[in-house]
Amino acid sequence: MPETMLSVSSKVLVELKGITKSFPIPKGALIACQDINLVIEKGRSVGLVGESGSGKSTVMRVLQLLLPATSGEVWMNGVNVSRLPQRRLKRYRRNVQFVAQDPFGSLFPHYTVGGNIAEPLRIHQTGTKSEQSARALELMASVGLSQDLYYKFPHELSGGQQQRVAIARALALSPELLVLDEAVSSLDVSIQAQILNLLQEMKARMGLTYAFISHNLAAVRLLCEDTVVMYLGRIVESAPSEVLFKQPIHPYTKSLIDAIPAFVGDKVKSLPTGSLTKVERPSPTHRPSGCAYHTRCPFATDVCKVEEPKWTEPLPGHRVACHHADRLK
Ligand SMILES: Nc1ncnc2c1ncn2[C@@H]1O[C@H](COP(=O)(O)OP(=O)(O)OP(=O)(O)O)[C@@H](O)[C@H]1O
After folding, report:
1. In 3-state terms, what secondary structure has residue 43?
2. Does the interface ipTM go beyond 0.95?
3. pLDDT confidence of residue 213
4. CA distance 321 to 93
């Protein structure tokens, strides 16, 4: 029975069971993520954090069935969707929608705003043409876009407006899960705040659940009920966000949280001081033995170099893989 991150209940929307994904490389295989067990409950958005290359996007691409897992299963609403033939995946694909980092790149440049938003309705043959247009207008209103923009083209919009169009399009088929991969990071800081506020407000209004990948931990804390921390392809800690940000246990999580700049007004008060800045990140092709974080961890002892840490659950729902969890909590 695999270890499962976060508590499992009847409200489970998506579950990843033991997902491993490796890519062939000239000298063997690169394991982008390994033995990922993750539960996303309805109405409990999950934030996936970790440095670049830790495997967050790979996990989410497997979740969306855009990449086949090397091993493991993806379940949604109690069905093992990784075993379904393509023709039976239509419902899953409708139900899990994606918002990318670069809104302009993700929109069709030769389609109007209305055309872009209505595109999924056309593909899934949902409603008549006029019903699709009416739905596009309704979605524009729900993401705060003025109806005057309906016939504009993406290049005529600001970055924030483009991202609102991308979000409206992702919502067209009323998905239950929205995967957001760095969905605000390419925008100006003030626009990021507006889009984050919109996402937060839509969550409450539409009962949406997000799987949110971000380097912006403050945004994860704001939007996500649960947070999962990845390091070199593995989950190292997961907990309700309120708990994780107040009482992180894994030294890696602590470093990530330390690295959030503190602001006073719009001025940075303190610069990152975490150990992450001091030691180079190992490559996933040369994964360190034992606890992979030991090469950078200020608390590492001999056992960390040779033995993989086991999962412990210091508090219900707060799980961590660290040999020294007891003394670090
Ligand atoms: N198609 C691929 N072929 C080979 N290696 C890949 C492929 N896709 C991802 N990788 C590798 O897998 C590892 C995990 O990548 P991934 O993009 O999932 O990380 P990430 O945490 O999402 O990073 P970022 O925050 O930069 O997006 C990286 O070492 C990456 O180079």
Report:
1. coil
2. yes
3. 96
4. 33
